[in-house]
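Weekly modeling sync, notes
Attendees: S.R. (lead), two postdocs, one rotation student

Agenda item 3: backlog of single-chain predictions. S.R. asked that every request posted to the team notebook include the full sequence so nobody has to chase files. The rotation student volunteered to paste the first one in as an example of the format we agreed on. Action items at the bottom.

Example entry:
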Amino acid sequence: MKLCTILMLLLFSSSACVSHHHRLAGDQVILTLKYPDAEKVVLFCSIDGFKPRQATLVSKSWESEVPAGATFRYFYRVDDTVFIPDCLMKEKDDFGFENCIYDPNL
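Predicted structure, as returned to the notebook:
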């Protein structure tokens, strides 16, 4: 019982540090994933057919740039595990998983 409680606390404490947001910078959307324990973060985005985009570590957060102006779907791979952050809009993909949706009109 104690081991289960400890594992749950560790899981909760590590996920509590994760946050996600975006901002506009000229003609780019900067997606920022604060995931301090990650060693590698890759963004997959519908704009370019979900080709991998290596995120850059900037001050304990991971940043990826995507062209602004169009709605797109995206998800991350963090240390070789698919990661869907908390986002305003999500949809199921063709594989039964979810993708976040960025809509420039919101």
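Discussion: group reviewed the output briefly. The CA atoms of residues 28 and 39 lie 25 Å apart.
Action items: rotation student to repeat for the remaining queue; S.R. to check formatting next week.
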